[in-house]
Specification:
Length: about 120
């Protein structure tokens, strides 16, 4: 689901609490994956629906991470730490390298883009 107002609200919460949006997004996505696979239940989330596409799930989980409340306390430590705490193979989908969450995009440019940029700039 791509719903810009919801994403902007989550980013606003990240700014308010001083959270990294990339790391927070990875933590929420990991928690949603765990919820979908049955490793986290509604009891674990205090009744919050963490199904993929849940706008309330994204915003409220971001708030809980910022306040370190309930499950947010575990997620605030990052996906590697959270996956080790939860176990059950959840580390397999914890998108991190050396404890740092990975962005969903790469800043590297493709060779085709670079060549087009050079031609456009007359280089």
């Amino acid at each position: 689901m791509f719903h810009l107002p919801v994403i902007l609200k989550a980013i606003e919460l990240c700014q308010f609490y001083g959270l990294d949006p990339v790391g927070t997004g990875a933590a929420v996505a990991w928690a949603m994956e765990c919820f979908e696979r049955g490793l986290l239940s509604s009891k674990d989330t205090n009744g919050l629906d963490l199904s993929f596409g849940s706008a309330d799930g994204l915003v409220e989980t971001t708030r809980r991470i910022g306040q370190r409340g309930g499950m947010g306390n575990m997620l605030a430590e990052g996906v590697r730490s959270a996956s080790l705490a939860l176990g059950h193979g959840s580390r397999d989908w914890a998108m991190q390298v050396k404890g740092l969450e990975m962005a969903g995009a790469t800043p590297a440019r493709s060779r085709a883009w670079h060549c087009a940029w050079q031609r456009a700039c007359g280089r």
